[in-house]
TrEMBL record, chain B:
Residues 3-239 form the ABC transporter domain. SUPFAM superfamilies: P-loop containing nucleoside triphosphate hydrolases. This is Urea ABC transporter ATP-binding protein UrtD. Keywords: ATP-binding, Nucleotide-binding, Transport. SMART domains: AAA. It comes from Nocardioides luteus.
Length: 376, 241
């Protein structure tokens, strides 16, 4: 029964996203929710790498950006028509499409790039980093520096990537006109659907032996080495999956938001992705996605109420969660669940720290011994 | 399978921790490694398991352990435990053992969930006496139970060489006794090497004792022989403050 627990949560989320939200939200709000879903897809990957794998991925904007720019380039080329030149290139550039853009003319190839390129980049990077046993803060700084470098690189390439303006003004999405409200709704369902599927994929992954091994690597990397497994390979797999999810989120973000710019892939954006994961509970199944949706919603409403002050709220949120609720909202749920019933035993699967205490009585030898001693 | 150590040297920034140690570790007997603090006992085990760089040779099944990475040494069948038991506290006892058993599984099976208790895991749970605690998080185990779990993790890997670093430190007399019996049960078909301080325990269970002092082997023999050894007495009495 306790194994069904997360699936009930998933079902509620699915009903909320696929039935409730489209019924009550205006097209404008639904469009915003679609955007949050894109962040949430990246957040699901961060939950795997950070929550389960212990890798503080501070630079997922890099992979979000790879997916986003690949998609944006494809949309620009598709808008320009066969052999055509995207509008901004005619404006700033020499009115010729660079060779490395050309493959993205094909929609199928664009999808392949969105899925494979982040896996390749994360694979090579992860191999170099994890095999050398770089971890903790060094890994976090390195990954963040890469996101920063990527954003700077984009800004510098005005002629081919639109520079600081980024790429925008997309007309169609694989043949569907983007100004049509029906198609916008379709995009929402696509994003929400992929989010729900990616959560299910995580549910499976967390149940597999790989999921157990990943937690073991998080909690005792060196110990795993002496059990005959190179922890670098385990971390690499989780990191690559997280990168691909970020890229998918980025790719969907482009037609939904209608723009991608270096601001969406840099350091600030990367930390933004992390904030939701921390809030929701990084090691829980639903926490990262729900947290990302909530942070997205909070960003919009608070920015509307107090323009320009979102980054302060975001910073405060980070500090409060890390200080008071390291397990995120999922930890709160866990506390409620444990108070309600004696089902603490499997809750440890979902809380990043702290094995549930209580209801161990007969088994905890050292504890009962010390209690006996205290009683005398 | 015999593990032969030849002229092993380990140096840390000029400090010689192991100074030309040669040892033959044979299967079928309980081999104890004793010596005063800083004698190099743990460093010896570290060098054999890829945790410390050493020169010389440690030959096992035609391979030189000193040239291999830690996880490859484990896959070759040489396992170790640590002074402070390091189990995965948030995972259950069963999951801990199942992860250890992973060395014998094909990689692709990582993508499937575990179903029930694998047979060899169940056997080991029985051997180390943790069957009733299989579903509990390893974090709630007592110190002694954690050490048993660690030994269980080596058993489930079917390690033919087990290097145990002070497995009974901090255990109650009763737990020590049980651990000694456990070691005796598992030693006939493998090479079991135990680092230990407690001389009573050594006397009770050791088949062979090697005494290390300042990175060198100063004596080897049965517990009784070691007790009579003049140099061992001098080292131990000199150390006693």
């Amino acid at each position: 029964m306790k194994k069904l627990y997360p699936y009930v949560g998933w079902l509620l989320l699915a009903i909320g996203l696929l039935v409730l939200a489209p019924a009550v939200l205006s097209d404008f709000r639904l469009g915003l929710l679609a955007k949050y879903c894109c962040y949430a897809i990246a957040a699901v990957g961060i939950g795997l790498a950070w929550g389960r794998g212990g890798m503080l991925v501070l630079g997922q904007g890099l992979y979000f950006g790879i997916g986003a720019y690949a998609m944006a380039m494809h949309l620009k080329l598709a808008d320009a028509g066969p052999g055509g030149v995207p509008d901004f290139m005619a404006l700033y550039g020499d009115a010729a499409v660079p060779g490395w853009w050309e493959p993205l003319r094909s929609g199928a190839l664009a999808v392949v790039v969105i899925l494979v390129l982040p896996a390749l980049v994360a694979g090579l990077l992860g191999l170099a980093v994890f095999k050398r046993r770089i971890k903790g803060a060094y890994f976090a700084i390195l990954s963040q520096a890469l996101a920063a470098a990527f954003a700077i690189l984009l800004v510098g390439q005005v002629k081919t990537t639109g520079g600081a303006n980024g790429l925008n003004n997309f007309q169609g999405f694989f043949g569907y006109a983007l100004f049509d409200p029906a198609n916008k709704r379709m995009l929402y369902f696509l994003a929400a659907g992929i989010l729900l599927v990616s959560i299910l994929a995580m549910a499976w992954l967390y149940r597999t032996r790989f999921g157990e091994l990943l937690v073991a690597v998080r909690d005792g990397e060196e110990r795993v080495r002496f059990l005959g497994t190179d922890p670098a390979n385990v971390k690499l797999a989780a990191y690559v999956i997280a990168a691909v999810l970020a890229s998918i989120g980025g790719a969907l973000f482009v037609p939904i938001a209608g723009i991608v710019s270096p601001d969406d892939v840099g350091v600030v954006a990367s930390i933004g992705l992390l904030a939701g994961v921390a809030l929701g509970g990084r090691a829980s199944l639903l926490g990262p996605a729900v947290g990302a949706l909530l942070v997205g919603y909070a960003e919009t409403t608070l920015s509307e109420a107090f323009p320009g002050s979102w980054s302060y709220f975001q910073g405060a949120l980070f500090v409060l969660v890390i200080l008071l609720l390291p397990g995120g909202l999922a930890q709160l749920l866990g506390l409620v669940g444990r108070a309600n019933a004696h089902r603490g035993d499997s809750a440890s699967d979902h809380s990043p720290r702290g094995v549930p205490r209580g209801k161990r009585g007969e088994t905890e030898v050292s504890r009962s011994a010390s209690e006996e001693a205290a009683a005398r | 399978m015999t593990l032969t150590v030849n002229d092993l040297r380990v140096e840390f920034d000029g400090f010689v921790a192991i100074d030309g140690v040669s040892l033959t570790l044979e299967p079928g007997r309980l081999h104890f490694l004793i010596g005063p603090n800083g004698a190099g006992k743990t460093t010896l085990v570290d060098a054999l398991t890829g945790l410390a760089k050493g020169s010389g040779e440690a030959r096992y099944r035609t391979r030189d352990l000193l040239a291999l990475a830690s996880h490859r040494i484990t896959r070759l069948g040489v396992g170790r435990t640590f002074q402070t038991a390091t189990v995965f506290e948030e995972l259950s006892v069963l999951q801990n053992l199942d992860i250890a058993a992973g060395v014998h599984r094909a990689r692709w099976r990582l993508m499937l969930p575990r179903r029930g208790t694998p047979e060899q895991v169940a056997e080991v749970l029985e051997t180390v006496g943790l069957t009733d605690l299989a579903e509990k998080p390893a974090g709630v185990l007592s110190h002694g139970q954690k050490q048993w779990l660690e030994i269980g993790m080596l058993l489930v890997q079917d390690s033919s060489v087990m290097l145990l670093d002070e497995p009974v430190a901090g255990m109650s007399a009763e737990e020590r006794e049980e651990t000694g019996e456990l070691l005796r049960r598992i030693s006939p078909e493998r090479t079991v090497v135990v680092i230990e301080h407690d001389m009573d325990f050594v006397r009770r269970f050791a088949d062979v004792v090697t005494v290390l002092h300042a990175g060198k082997v100063i004596a080897e023999g049965t517990a009784a022989e070691i007790r009579e050894d003049a140099e061992v007495q001098r080292v131990y009495l000199g150390e006693d403050a």
